[in-house]
What we know:
It is found in: Bacterial flagellum basal body. Belongs to the flagella basal body rod proteins family. It comes from Pseudalkalibacillus berkeleyi. This is Flagellar basal body rod protein FlgB. The protein is mostly helical. The chain has four helices and two strands; from the N terminus they run αβααβα. It is flat and about 65 Å long.
Amino acid sequence: MLNSSTIQKLEHALNYRSLNHKTIANNIANADTPNYKAQSVQFKDALNTSMKAYRTDAQHIPFSSETTVNRPFNVKTNANTSYSHNGNNVDTDKEMAKMAENQLYYQALIQRMNGKLSSMKMVIGGGR
């Protein structure tokens, strides 16, 4: 019951949101560090990891889920831009907005996980 695909997907999504929070917080903490480059967690990789797709023919382009299952999320450094004179490219306002958005998604996932666990608790308790 605890190994249901819904709980595993929620766990995976929570891991993604947690890493995303840490990455954004690290960017904000280094907003004044010379030559620091902002990092981000790649959503595309997370989405591809959570999707299951399989090739039906060896000549088809491989889906990334075939090669990245259970691989940790990728954190990418954006080294191509520079917003300040010291070589730093952290936009604090943008990072704060991303932090707020990430927090909303995280809370929604926690609510969904609590709902799933409450349902399991009710089933185990015989509907009481």
